[in-house]
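Minutes, methods subgroup
Present: GH (chair), OT, SY

1. OT presented the first of two proteins processed in the latest run. Sequence and structure tokens recorded below as shown on screen.
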Amino acid sequence: LINPENLVVIEWADRVKKIMPKRHIKIHIDHISKNERKIYMDSPPSLKLRKDTSSLNEEMSALRSSEGAKK
């Protein structure tokens, strides 16, 4: 779990927010209709993710790159 290359997804993370790392990405999914969802992503400024990303995959790549640069 501590390897920065790992992706850990926690459902109902608000129940464990006391133990969540300070640097994490929040994803909120609203159920709009049977076939429609609205997805919100939020990350702290300290992650310095690119603002021009258009997908979760790109956001995770940016996160891994920023973590790898700190090694």
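2. SY then presented the second protein from the same run.
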Amino acid sequence: SALRGLRAGMASGIMGSEVNNMDCTKIGASIRQLRQERGLTQQQLADGLHVSHKTVSKWDAGVHLDKDTTS
């Protein structure tokens, strides 16, 4: 499925590298690109990952989140 492909892309391209504040913009751009390539809306991705659509919006924007990202 599109969501499974996105998860695989995120795991290989994003999760494998060390993440810091400087990387948030790049990570957000990667999440947005992978999501859009697979034809997923922010809401669809949020539903599949069990997070809020607001969280996915923040990821897309490259906003760094230190706390729980499910609200």
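Chair's summary of item 2: The longest helix spans residues 24-37.
Next meeting: continue with the remaining queue.
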